Amino acid sequence: MELVPRAIIHHPSVRRDAKRRGKKPSEVLLDRSLHHAAMKALPKAYKRGRPDIIHFCLLEALGSPLNREGGLRVWVHTIGGYAIEVDPKTRLPRDYNRFKGLMEQLFQRGAVPPGSSQPLLKIRRMELRELLEEIEPSYVVALTSHGREGTLQEICGRLVEEERPAAFIGAYPKGELEGSTLSLVDDAVSIYPEVLDAWIVTSRLIYEFEKQIKEKGRV
Ligand SMILES: C[S@@+](CC[C@H](N)C(=O)[O-])C[C@H]1O[C@@H](n2cnc3c(N)ncnc32)[C@H](O)[C@@H]1O
Fold first, then answer.
1. In this structure, which residue's CA is closest to atom 24 in ligand 1?
2. Does residue 176's CB lie within 6 angstroms of at least one atom of ligand 1?
3. Is the peptide bond before 173 cis (omega within 30 degrees of 0)?
4. Domain ranges of the chain
């Protein structure tokens, strides 16, 4: 998820979208369904322009019993090098266009609601490595179709033993996790012989973790 990069703000598809929504081209989120032709010029275009994937994943995570019961924290790290901190109480719009509007406000104003002393969403320029230094997880697993074969049962068996476990999910359409991302994890696991959608992996990981943490009597 990112605002339209400077390199393509003059493309007709971007200008049309911005005009229709009463915004400047530099203020709209990059969205492949609208800016497909403009995106051809962008590096790693196959990984970009799909804020709908983040929308689905966040709805899955924030609506889960684990989050409602205070057992989950969610961050989004973006391709442009921003970290978004999501307050567990956040109720995101179910409507995709309203979600995009909220994210555009976040990128422009730095917080949602802007100016609040306790915003629901906060964005800061930050490398993934710096975010991890701040979160200080005791163990990090990446879920990726390019990882070693494993099961959610086994992954969560390890996560529930940890004091501050973290999991990475790639909320983008195609392509491997970056080498720089994989260098930050303790393990990288594939849970199915084919590529799954990020929101399926999100909901299944959370469900398995909920089951195992209940069995351990920790929530
Ligand atoms: C559409 S995939 C991105 C494609 C990429 N091949 C990958 O797995 O990294 C979206 C995300 O869902 C998760 N995912 C997809 N298939 C998976 C699998 N078989 N095992 C574990 N995680 C998977 C990963 O976090 C992945 O980044």
1. 144
2. yes
3. no
4. 6-47, 51-215
Q: How far is Cα of residue 20 from the mean position of the Cα atoms in its chain?
A: 27
CATH superfamily of 51-215: SPOUT methyltransferase, trefoil knot domain (3.40.1280.10)
Per-residue pLDDT of 136-168, as tens digits, reads 999 999 999 999 999 999 999 999 999 999 999
Model-wide pTM > 0.90: yes
Residue 143 Cα, ligand 1 centroid: separation in angstroms? 6
Q: What is the pLDDT of residues 4-46, one digit of tens each?
A: 999 999 999 999 999 999 999 999 999 999 999 999 989 999 9
